[in-house]
Amino acid sequence: SVDFECDAHWPPWETPPVNRPAEVAALLPLLAGEKIDPSLAVHLTLLLDAGCSLLVAGPREPGLQGEIAAAFATASPRIRADESRAEIAIGAGHSFSWLADPAGIGCVVEGAGTAPRAPREVRLRMHEIFTAPEPATVRTTIRALARGYALIADGRAASLAEILDKLRSGAFRVPEADIRRIAIVVVTDEVRVTSCHLLQPSEMGSARPPTLLSAWDADQQGWDDFAWAAIPELAERCRRTHARSEEHTSELQSHHD
């Protein structure tokens, strides 16, 4: 069985109706500044709406990666039944008091699990993931994705390979299956998104390579859109039929335009 799909551990709840034009307005500065491909912005919005997680990395801190992460967190908020935003900011010294059975994912922080469990529609937010929080905090946060939580994080790294190397080795030592639950990895330079990758699930013990959704072509001064080849997979992760996914993509694209 697949342990990665964005709804594999997600409870059956309905996202309340939202004013999509007002929300995607948070992305307008990125689009106006040509910092991200509009088609990619639509795909990311749909994936985040479905509960997938996102890590944005760039070469400097603070940098564009923080701006992009914050914009998408605003454009695709997690909304609770009482219509309040459902978000937990995680930084250095975080207690994980909201996490049920912390020992089950290797969390031994004092105070962990002492408060009522946070509902799974909550999104976790982490800034400067590779430098600000302790490695153990990062590891616990990513492992908590197996419980159905979603994450939007940003950090300093220059490539997908560097991101994966940091998480797998050294002080972080995040298990491979948990890394793959991050789902979406966006890499930037100092002015724009340079690539976006969809991490593949750990399935039957095999390690499928990430799917490249978008890449910046410096010679052509534009983005190469590879997401068309992954539309069936994107639709499945967005928990929509292929046709409905294309319909919603067109709808969001009209707001971005």
Q: Which secondary structure elements does this structure contain, and how are they paired or packed?
A:
Layout: H1 20-24, H2 28-32, H3 38-49, E1 54-58, H4 64-75, E2 87-90, E3 123-126, H5 135-143, E4 150-156, H6 160-168, H7 176-180, E5 184-188, E6 193-198, E7 202-203, E8 206-207, E9 211-217, E10 222-225, H8 231-237, H9 242-256
Parallel strand pairs: 1-4, 1-5, 2-3, 3-4
Antiparallel strand pairs: 5-6, 6-9, 7-8, 9-10
Shape: globular
Rg, rounded, reads: 17 Å
Report strand order across the widest sheet.
2-3-4-1-5-6-9-10
Helix/strand structural class: alpha/beta
**In total, how many beta strands?**
10
State the end-to-end distance: 39 Å
Contiguous uncertain segments of 5+ residues? 1-19
Q: What percent of residues are in strands? A: 15-25%
Compute the average pLDDT: 83
Give a verbal description of the structure:
- The protein is of the alpha/beta class.
- The longest helix is centred in the C-terminal third of the chain and has 15 residues, at 242-256.
- It is built from nine helices and ten strands.
- Helix 5 links the parallel strand 3 and strand 4.
- The radius of gyration is 17 Å and the shape is globular.
- An eight-stranded mixed sheet has the order 2-3-4-1-5-6-9-10, with helices on both faces. Strands 7-8 form a two-stranded antiparallel sheet.
